[in-house]
Specification:
alpha+beta; 28% helix; globular
Length: 433
């Protein structure tokens, strides 16, 4: 590699695990530790960069003060305020980008990409327009106008012929505020969700997956979430592994799928903090190949999704395998989807001995994947032929069990975390009984 070695700066929360893991990866590459600009200072005072710095914009999650500055709520387990969070966060990212551009620093993610990735309606529209297989959605791209409440949801489900759908906060992730809704006839509605609604009408994130069994209950939750924006998409029937619904988180670095984990659950949400568990990736690949799928093409679906965001070095793609492991669709693309502690890269990815952060550092250094050049990432990747969607899959019920006693969790509409093998994660910040 010619030219000077990169000097990293990270806009993040100093105590966040992400910052610690990225710092460890930078030092393992023989480089000086990155300069960390705390989000709380950036939000109050702005950022400053040196010429030639390579800037990583990291998650603002897991910090109650930063959450208050962005969302305007004193209790981080509350669900309200995601639209305010989105507006303030994307504005802050744009200001960081402007300062970096003026200073001659290079960003590893673009403001445009981040703004799209944190609006599920816009993201779905971009993926769909690019021919990436995605679940059908009556809110794709946002052209259909805002969803104002349960009456709108009901009307759009009926118009689209959907009896089972996910209703998601437009600016959330980690299943925050998501409802898996099933319509069984006039007045017969139920929803599986991690949302806890208190008697006074307040909504909280909870570690317990629960079910609301009446239309009035479902309507009350949806009506409370609607002011912050809602996205609706078809609930696709997922493949299973050992009797549990399964999907995959695939990390794409520099255009190449480098890391993957299988997530399994007995509920519609596979997130680990909601009772999901890591599945068997080798078994998933074997099942897909036995069903006639080509594994490089499966990974290629994720690479095609990542290619929709050329100004961003790394994204995490949620890949939904259809029943029988024959077809695949992209559920979501995550700007901060790389928190997979202890997980080494896929065989043939060039990142076999690296975790997700090491792969990103290596990409910047040009060791195993494309070199970052300004706001675009160019270079070779695994071939990504067209893949078919899941429209022909038959729907099936997906009942979810009740979990342990209620715990509220801090709202993190920008964060997902997964464990690898025996690696354990600390309790979610902000958890309370």
């Amino acid at each position: 590699m010619s030219g000077p070695l990169p000097r990293f700066a990270v806009v993040g929360n100093p105590d966040n695990r992400r910052v610690a893991l990225f710092t460890a990866a930078v030092r393992a590459a023989g480089l000086p530790a990155p300069r960390v600009l705390p989000w709380r200072e950036v939000l109050r005072e702005g950022a400053r960069f040196a010429p030639g710095e390579t800037v990583r914009i990291d998650s603002p999650g897991e910090d109650a003060e930063v959450e208050r500055l962005l969302r305007g709520v004193s209790d981080p387990t509350r669900l309200e305020g995601t639209a305010r969070w989105y507006a303030r966060f994307t504005d802050a990212v744009r200001r960081v980008a402007a300062v970096a551009d003026t200073a001659g620093a290079t960003l590893l993610s673009s403001p445009r990409d981040i703004a799209v990735l944190f609006d599920k309606r816009l993201c779905h529209g971009v993926l769909s327009a690019a021919g990436v297989p995605v679940p059908m959605s009556p809110t794709s791209g946002g052209a259909a106008g805002p969803v104002r409440g349960w009456a709108d949801v009901r009307a759009r489900l009926a118009s689209a012929g959907l009896r089972r759908a996910f209703v998601k906060p437009a600016h959330g992730s980690s299943a925050s505020g998501v409802l898996a809704v099933e319509m069984a006839g006039p007045g017969r509605v139920r929803a599986t969700t991690s949302v806890e609604r208190t008697p006074d009408g307040r909504l909280y994130n909870s570690l317990r997956v629960r079910r609301y069994g009446t239309e009035a209950e479902v309507a009350a939750v949806v009506d409370a979430l609607a002011p912050d924006g809602l996205h609706i998409e078809r609930w696709l029937p997922k493949a299973s592994q050992r009797g549990r619904a399964a999907d995959l988180r695939v990390v794409v670095v520099g255009g190449r799928a480098t890391h993957a984990v299988v997530r399994t659950s007995r509920s519609p949400m596979t997130n680990l903090h909601l009772g999901g568990a890591r599945g068997d990736l080798a078994a998933a690949r074997a099942a897909a190949e036995a069903a006639g799928a080509d594994w490089p093409e499966v990974l290629g679906v994720c690479e095609r999704a990542a290619a929709c965001f050329p100004g961003t070095l790394c994204v995490g793609v949620d890949l939904l395998p259809g029943s029988g492991w024959r077809r695949f669709a992209v559920g979501e693309v995550n700007a901060f989807g790389d928190l997979l502690p202890g997980l080494n890269g896929l065989a043939g990815s060039g990142a076999e001995s690296l975790d997700t952060y090491g792969a990103q550092v290596a990409a910047v250094m040009g060791l195993h994947s494309p070199i970052v050049d300004g706001l675009s990432v160019d270079g070779p990747s695994i071939d990504a032929p067209s893949a078919t969607g899941l429209d022909s899959c038959a729907e099936r019920p997906g009942p979810a069990p009740h979990a342990e006693p209620t715990q509220h969790i801090q709202h993190n509409p920008h964060q997902e975390h997964h464990a690898h093998a025996a690696v354990s994660l600390p309790a979610e910040p902000g958890a309370r009984p």
